[in-house]
Every structure is written in C-alpha cells, then in structure tokens.
Amino acid sequence: MSIQLETDKMEILPINLTEDLPKLTEVMKRAFNDDARRFNNKPEGDGPPGYDDGNFYRKWSPQSNGFKIVFQNKIVGAILVFPNSKGKSYLGNINIDPQYQNLGFGTKLIQFIERKFPLSKLWVLDTPSWATRNHHFYQKNGYSKTKEVMHNKSMKSFVFEKRIE
After folding, report:
1. Is residue 105 within a helix (H) or strand (E), and if so which, with residue range?
2. How does pLDDT run across 116-136, given as a tens digit for each residue?
3. pTM for the whole thing?
C-alpha cells in the first residue's frame, strides 16, 4: 500500500540558515544514513563532510542559493544550487527525508530550480556510484551520466548532466 500525499501543497522557500540549520541537518543526516544502509551496506556515516553536524550547510550555503521543501509545516528536504552566469549551474546537494521519498517532492524541486534559473542551460551534479536510487531519480528527470570520478581508492562518484534548450 503506497502513501499518497498532496505534494501540490508543498512550499519551496529560501533557506534561512540561522533558523533552519538544525532541521536541515536532521533531514540531511537521515537521508544520507538511510542511503548508506540501503545501498552501500554501511550502518551510517557515509555522507559528505559535515553532513551530520551542520558544517556542510555552514560551509556551502553562503556560496549557493539554498531552498527548503516545507510540507505540513515541516522541512522535508532541501537543495543547494550554484548558478553560473555562463549558463552552467551545479546542483550541490539534494536531500529528501526518507519518509517523504518517492512521493514526487524531488521531481517538483528539480522543476522549480530549472524555472527559477532560466539562464542555466547546463545542469551538472555528482552522486556516489553506489547510490543507485539517485541515478534512477536523475535519469527520470532528464539527466545523463557523463563521467566517473575516483576521489580515492574506495570512493567513486558519477557526474550527471542535463541540457535545457
């Protein structure tokens, strides 16, 4: 039995780091830990540096445009966008609380970002090679894998891109 939510009642709002940091960090931690357990056979702790203590947002929010998904007065997801004046933008982080995944929130967030930054004709992101659910999500939303990057002997990521005409 699947849960149906009225995702049209979600709001996408700018992140206010002072107010939102604790909730954003909780959501990010749950999302990354859930993926690590389900797809990388790790109990937890497999996110980017600072994902579980707020330092990720402290480091990257000042350099990006951050947006949160609010549903039923709760932050259920977020995205950081690094737009480029030359038409190439980078999606630095997308995370949705595990209990709200596969319900359309991520797709609506991608659509919002593409409308919000109409001068961006090339969108680029990277995601861990083991994060197969992410790969499917990005491909479903028009992204194609363009390369693989080895960060060290045990960490490989895939780069995905989407061109918008």
Report:
1. helix 105-116
2. 999 999 999 998 887 888 899
3. 0.88
